[in-house]
Amino acid sequence: MIDRKYAEYAWEQTEQILAIDSPVGYTMDVAAWSKKAFEDLGFKAHYSNKGGVVADLGGEDTEDALLLTVHSDTLGGMVSTIKPNGRLQLSALGGLEPNNTETENVRVRTRDGRVYEGTFQLANASFHVNEEFEKTERDWDTMEVVLDEDVRSAADVRALGVEVGDIVCFEPRTRRTASGYIKSRFLDDKLSMGIVLGFAKYIADNQIRLPRKTYVAVTIYEEVGHGCSSVDLKGVTEILSVDMGCVGDGLQCTEKQVSICAKDKGGPYNYNMVTKLINAAKKMEADYAVDVYPRYSSDATAALRGGADVRHGLIGAGVYASHGYERSHMDGVYNTIKVICGYLGV
Question: Which of 303, 311, 317, 339 could in theory staple to 228 by disulfide, Cβ–Cβ 3.0 to 4.6 A?
Answer without folding.
Answer: 303
